[in-house]
Amino acid sequence: MVEQTEAEYRERVSTEQIIGRKRWTIDGSLSSLPSYFQPPPTLPAVQTTARYDVVRNISEVEQGSFGRAGLSHATLAGALLHGLKEVEAWYNTVAPGSGTPIHRHSCEEIFVVLKGSGTLYIAPSNPDQDHPGTPQEYPIFANSTFHVAGGVVHQVRNTNEHEDLQCIVAISKPPMKVFMYKDWFTPHNAAKMVFPMFWDERCYQTHPKKDEL
Amino acid sequence: MVEQTEAEYRERVSTEQIIGRKRWTIDGSLSSLPSYFQPPPTLPAVQTTARYDVVRNISEVEQGSFGRAGLSHATLAGALLHGLKEVEAWYNTVAPGSGTPIHRHSCEEIFVVLKGSGTLYIAPSNPDQDHPGTPQEYPIFANSTFHVAGGVVHQVRNTNEHEDLQCIVAISKPPMKVFMYKDWFTPHNAAKMVFPMFWDERCYQTHPKKDEL
């Protein structure tokens, strides 16, 4: 996982814009592309998914917290695991008191709440403000649905101390890249870019070392 | 809804290619564009969605069969109803013995089966064949997931005579346009294009007639 501030990210993008959005071909290789066009240099090539069942039992899909307390995530069908290019679906369980970071992403996202309840926080739309600002709060509940447009700063939390919150989530344009905020008053350009997502990291693996014998 | 064979569709596309993928500007109006670039002429402008709740109770989302026996469909979050551009989610219930047509679409599709069971039929991949051919069959069941890549001919049926089949479906690139096959031996170029989808038709409405008084 690579973290950088949005300011750092924008600086890179600006540099790219200055040179006319062309590929850097100083040494003629793909690795001379700006890093946001490809896996960061610390992350080798993606592990392609060689085999998976056409129909998968969700109970048997690998789930994990991926270092996030209170999270259980399973990618039901996705870019890195199954080769999808346009849409990805997750099965997420969030423990009481836990939730997503305050974050935004350019992709669209649809939630279907299967079980439990909680709160959706959405930043007000105010393009003149350099930070999200105090969010609006919406109760979410079993058998509810909502979506988040691209670029909207939001957070989903299990604010029900008695029950897990279970959701199916569909996103566009996988794999997801997010910008995370420390709080609702963090400037947009200080949000930290996180890519790949915690659960996508396992799909990037180092090339096996050559056997020295 | 407009139906045309793929041959007719391809003929239009070819004509468009011949003239260099330029807009037809014979009369200088947008309506002179080939019809596949816009709602068919019988369908006026899309009804934009003025208002919807941020969080919606799925039980209260409008559901309907839209003329398809054995189907109950609800668009949870979509292009025409909610302004999404990249992903759309449905809640579909299929009665015993019913199912989707044999069809294909260029978008990607992910299914999550919530209840019931049935069968997924997938055409073999054989680019040299002019028709789908006898499909492979896969049992689907509650708490299972599967996806269909763009362009793959498939069908999902409730083959359990005792129980409804309930699924959440996520698609990319909404609104969906499909090509439907009469059977697995229908030539690809005789598949009928259907657009808009049955449930999207209500989003296209005629302009209100002017009050003659």
Describe this structure in words.
- The structure is a homodimer of 213-residue chains.
- By secondary structure, chain A is mainly beta.
- The first copy, chain A, has one domain: Jelly Rolls, CATH 2.60.120.
- Helices cover 8% and strands 32% of the residues of chain A.
- Chain A has helices at residues 6-18, 79-82; strands spanning 2-5, 56-57, 71-77, 87-94, 102-104, 109-115, 117-122, 136-141, 144-148, 154-157, 165-172, 178-181, 192-195.
- Chain A has a 5-stranded antiparallel β-sheet with strand order 3-4-11-6-9. In chain A, strands 1-13-12-5 form a 4-stranded antiparallel β-sheet.
- The longest helix of chain A has 13 residues, at 6-18.
- Chain A is globular.
- The two termini of chain A are 32 Å apart.
- The relative contact order of chain A is 0.22.
- The interface between A and B is large, with 42 and 42 residues.
- Strand 2 of chain A pairs antiparallel with strand 9 of chain B, so a sheet runs across the interface.
- Chains A, B: Glycans are attached at residue 143.
- Chains A, B: GO terms for molecular function: auxin binding; metal ion binding.
- Chains A, B: It comes from Sesamum angustifolium.
- Chains A, B: Its main location: endoplasmic reticulum.
- Chains A, B: One of its GO terms (cellular component) is endoplasmic reticulum lumen.
Q: Segments of chain A where pLDDT lies below 50 for 5+ residues?
A: 12-45, 206-210
Q: Supply the CATH superfamily name of chain A.
A: Jelly Rolls
Q: What's the overall average pLDDT of chain A, rounded?
A: 81
Structural class of chain A: mainly beta
